[in-house]
Fold this sequence. Notes:
Number of helices of chain A: 12
Oligomer: heterodimer
Helix content of chain A: 25-40%
Number of domains of chain B: 1
Strand content of chain B: under 5%
Largest sheet of chain B: none
Number of domains of chain A: 1
Number of helices of chain B: 10
Largest sheet of chain A: 8 strands, mixed
Radius of gyration of chain A: 18 Å
Helix content of chain B: 40-55%
CATH topology of chain B: Protocatechuate 4,5-dioxygenase, Chain A
CATH class of chain B: Mainly Alpha
Shape of chain A: globular
Number of strands of chain A: 10
CATH class of chain A: Alpha Beta
Largest interface: A-B, 43 and 50 residues
CATH architecture of chain B: Orthogonal Bundle
CATH superfamily of chain B: Dioxygenase LigAB, LigA subunit
Distance between the termini of chain B: 47 Å
CATH topology of chain A: Protocatechuate 4,5-dioxygenase, Chain B
Structural class of chain A: alpha/beta
Amino acid sequence: MARIIAGVTSSHVPAIGAAIxxxxxxxxxxxxxxxxxxxxxxxxxxxxxxVVIGVYNDHASAFSVEMIxxxxxxxxxxxxxxxxxWGPRPVxxxxxxxxxxxxxxxxxxxxxxxxTLCNKMEVDxxxxxxxxxxxxxxxxxxxxxxxxxxxxxxxxxxxxHRCFMLGRAIRKAVESYPExxxxxxxxxxxxxxxxxxxxxxxxxxxxxxxFLDNLxxxxxKLMRMGHLEYMREAGAEGIEMVMWLIMRGxxxxxxxxxxxxxxxxxxxxxxGHIILENRRKAAKKSTAKPAxxxxxxxPKLKRAAARSKVHRVRS
Amino acid sequence: xARAKPTAEKDYDDIPGTYVFDADRxxxxxxxxxxxxxxxxxxxxxxxxxNEAKYLDQFPLTPEQRGAILKRQYNxxxxxxGNIYFTAKLGATDGHPFQHLAALMTGSxxxxxxxxxxxxxRPVEGNRSMSGKFNRPKAKSAKAKSKPRSKGSKRRx
Lengths: 315, 157
């Protein structure tokens, strides 16, 4: 059985991608941002997901104003990197998991979430920047990635409640997939930022910290937050944070917060990042094998110890 | 196109310095945004830079939209139905980093804008609402927190 074991959220600021592509990650300004993801890279290297479901938004790359799907699931085997006006980012092509994606599509649509399915879709910095932050700059991404593009560009985006419930439906879909797969779900975008109009540059760290707290412990509270509050408090483009609720909905009610990082600014944006793990341990398969039990115990302990060593970082 | 009065449906028009890209703006700004999309291709960027007015003839823009593009009035473009992710492509065609556009829209220099971001960005206080309705939305809870318990003997209702 496939299973979602953890959720990760991260901002997807394009300038972070530009800093990586132009080899500027060692500059003090960017070091402050990238250092915050060092432990996350170690974490995901240990977790080794088979599949990442990447919830992100397209920024006038794959979708223009011609068609604006609210939820677009990538069901293709491959997703080329979009040319966002400076040539495509020099990152590996995103390889999908068409079988799992088709299964999710069927399950979720029959659960009354009317997805748009994309057999051809280019992906932009919204997806690739978080992949870089978590996996670094490998020649190939180490796992399959299923993109889920959410409209947050044209108002209104889906509500936080809708996003959370979609996450729930995605979890149900994943858990009914017969193959043993470790799945990690990414929610991207945010945190507070406004990049348009006279109010551009708005940052609300107080809002961001409360959002992170609630995401971890009381997501029900966030489900009730209306769009006006997101835009007023966290900036017009801060509304991207509804996407984080898809990630949260796909996890259990009670989760362990493994790691958190927050810094201001990256270009025009507050960078927020959190890793949440489901408490249920690995797939049933491992506990069903009595011979494997003793063997499994040691790495489990190690992981618990590693987790306790991870400090919360706030700045 | 004057700024619409905030209605219940468009409650977000009460947020200062903000042009929410809704379905109305998306429709009005369709050709403007499609012009911006065309700048994703290198040959189009070149053609535009060679003769801006001629290039714009391909798109059925309103005179206001056309003028705002030629004059690089980024806030006006938002008002006329442009979306920032699209108009940013115009800025990129000019070779400007995004913060140059942000500075233009906020009426400051790029250096001042960058410094403001380093200091933690534009504060939300005083920037929530034009009507003043939401200027102190957390006042109640903040008050409750700051008051020592012993003095909070007066109960409401």
